[in-house]
Design brief:
Structural class: mainly alpha
Bound molecules: zinc ion
Strand order of the largest sheet: 1-2
Number of helices: 30
CATH architecture of one domain: Orthogonal Bundle
């Protein structure tokens, strides 16, 4: 919308108000209920509407096995109480009671066998050793098996000769059943808690919702247009942008300097495009590695940890060369493969090997995940990616934690670290990662053939992406994203490309719970290990210990459930509105959460015995 249109609309406002009338709320209201919950945007001419609430229900519901366990526990409890309300004497005196008790025992036996089946399924899902590493799970299994044996004996021991044995067995059995009911109730409670979802909304979402409701109240198209104009500016975060009245050209000279620069950049761009340089796309990647990448590049289960034993930090160079070759970025963007390798080697060697988490493997993992979003989740078409866009997404991911000292921003600020002093306590680490990337790019003359315009575009997007990986920005950035998604004109292929880039990198950076447990668990111990090393230093220095950094109080399982509930799950649910294909992979997060829910007691025991 041009400034002239804005001004025209401003002058039309009074006219619109004079003719406006309130209409009763009817069918529009009903459609607006859906409107509140859905976001629509346009991809290559097709208007897509994604009902996020519907996918939420599909993917966050309690799985069948847990529902079955809840039902079984309820029936089992009922039977235990029926059994408790009758004594064996009642049964002797009344044949009906005896018959009822017999039937309840048979049903109990069936339920106990089903519990055995449940344990077998969980063993199959989580692995036998993992499941029984929790001593309570082992104890449960023991009680269930013992109870089955006792019921079978109880049903078969008849006559006075066995009365004494029978009495003792009944006593033990009653106690065991009570204990089992207690344990199973705890399990049900955990399952229910695992299904809990948190809804965090921002005022801007509420404002947009109110304005939408208001627009629904009017028939006058001018007023609706004014309200939509307001919604557009609020959701674009442009409410403080200047609207220039009168002679614009002079004011623009002062206020909007980049306009002039942009003109120069486009001329420069024409100049540089006339130089014909052809670069080969062959980087002489080791053949075995090329095949390994080809097989696993879209595989979230990829066991890339072993690659580092063989290739060390050069693995990042190899991965990036593979992507650049595959997507023909060398020839299209006129990037010299030699400069590229030098730049990647420099980045790789600037990741600290001694860091448990923020090392080159993490850079590999995040880049791998970003490519998964591009290719498997089809962001290449949704975001209408150009070759330059590919290079921005991949390079920013590879460099997003370069030269990370294994300490977080809070520690750097508290200890007056050099980086905190350089960047004035504002996302110091992320600023440093971005600055280091551009230092490497400059030193290796990576973009010597880029136009000023392309370089500026790359730099702006890349810096924004890397800065968005500061978790302190998560809440604000997430609310901005939701406001954009709630707007009428969300367009991931054009005006919202930047916010989508930021979102993809941040999502990849917090993607551990999105991965199969085999990889997720390794990352969990690595990240907490690094946090705890920081906590040890904080204690030694007499500083307050940062949350999750105290090895004596952090319950590993609880920390991950909190991470999933507060950050990962809400973020990925929203990300599905941009990448609908993601829905196919969301169950993994819930499955991982259930795994941790079952491990809480195990980790609590470890903490208590420290
Ligand atoms: Zn990271």
């Amino acid at each position: 919308m041009t400034e002239q249109q804005n001004l025209n609309e401003d002058t039309n406002r009074n006219l619109g108000q004079a003719t406006a009338k309130v209409v009763p709320r009817g069918s529009k209201e009903i459609s607006n209920i859906f409107g509140d919950r859905r976001s629509s945007y346009n991809i290559e001419g097709y208007d897509r509407v994604i009902a996020d609430e519907i996918t939420d229900q599909q993917h966050q519901g309690i799985p069948l096995i847990d529902k079955a366990v809840i039902a079984l526990v309820l029936i089992f409890t009922l039977l235990v109480f029926i059994n408790f309300s009758f004594t064996s004497n009642d049964a002797k005196e009344d044949p009906d009671i005896d018959k009822t008790l017999f039937v309840t025992k048979i049903i109990e036996l069936v339920i106990l066998i089903l519990f055995v089946l449940e344990i077998s399924i969980r063993c199959f899902q989580n692995g036998f050793i993992t499941y029984f590493s929790d001593c309570w799970s082992f104890f449960d299994a023991l009680i269930i098996v013992a109870s089955i044996v006792l019921i079978v004996l109880d049903l078969n021991l008849q006559g006075d000769a066995f009365t004494t044995i029978s009495k003792v067995l009944r006593g033990i059995f009653r106690f065991l059943r009570l204990f089992l009911v207690f344990r199973k109730y705890n399990q049900v409670k955990k399952i229910n808690n695992a299904g809990t979802r948190y809804t965090v909304r921002s005022p801007v979402e509420k404002v947009i919702e109110i304005m939408r409701d208001l627009a629904d109240q009017f028939e006058d198209s001018d007023i609706i247009k004014q309200l939509n104009w307001g919604i557009t500016h609020i959701s674009n975060n442009t409410v403080y942008e200047p609207i220039i009245e009168g002679r614009k050209s002079e004011a623009l000279g002062w206020l909007n300097q980049p306009q002039n620069q942009q003109l120069m950049a486009s001329q420069e761009s024409k100049k540089s495009s006339s130089i014909e340089i052809i670069f080969s796309n062959d980087t002489k990647l080791p053949e075995q590695l090329r095949q390994d990448f080809a097989q696993n590049i879209l595989n979230l289960d990829y066991d890339y940890f072993s690659l580092f034993d063989r290739y060390d930090s050069a693995i990042l160079t190899h991965l990036m060369c593979y992507y650049f070759e595959k997507e023909h970025l060398f020839s299209t963007l006129k990037i010299s493969p030699d400069s590229f390798k030098k730049c990647m080697d420099q980045l790789g060697s600037n990741y600290h090997k001694e860091n448990l988490y923020h090392n080159v493997i993490h850079a590999f993992d995040v880049t791998h995940t970003v490519y998964f979003f591009i290719e498997k989740c089809n962001f290449k078409e949704i975001g209408k990616l150009t070759k330059l866009d590919y290079s921005i997404l991949l390079l920013s991911a590879a460099a997003h934690d370069v030269d990370h000292p294994g300490l977080n921003n809070i520690f750097l600020n508290n200890t007056r670290h050099e980086l905190a002093m350089t960047y004035n306590d504002k996302s110091s680490l992320e600023q440093h990662h971005a600055a280091t990337l551009f230092k490497c790019i400059r030193e290796t003359e990576l973009f010597s053939n880029f136009s000023i315009q392309d370089f500026k575009y790359f730099r702006e997007k890349s810096i924004s992406m890397i800065l968005s990986t500061d978790n302190a920005m998560h809440g604000k950035d997430f609310n901005k994203l939701k406001a954009r998604l709630a707007s009428n004109d969300f367009d991931p292929g054009s005006k919202d490309k930047g916010i989508c880039f930021d979102t993809l990198l941040h999502a990849a950076d917090i993607s551990n719970p999105f991965k199969p447990m085999k990889n997720y668990e390794k990352w969990t111990f690595r990240v907490l290990g690094e946090f705890w090393q920081q906590g040890d230093r904080e204690k030694d220095m007499g500083l307050p210990v940062t949350m999750l950094c105290d090895r004596r109080t952090t319950n590993v399982a609880k920390s991950q459930i909190g991470f999933i509930d507060f950050m990962v799950l809400p973020y990925y649910n929203t990300l599905q509105q941009i990448l609908p294909v993601l829905a196919e992979f969301m169950e993994q997060i819930s499955e991982n959460k259930r795994y941790w829910a079952e491990q809480i007691e195990h980790y609590q025991t470890l903490l208590n015995t420290q």
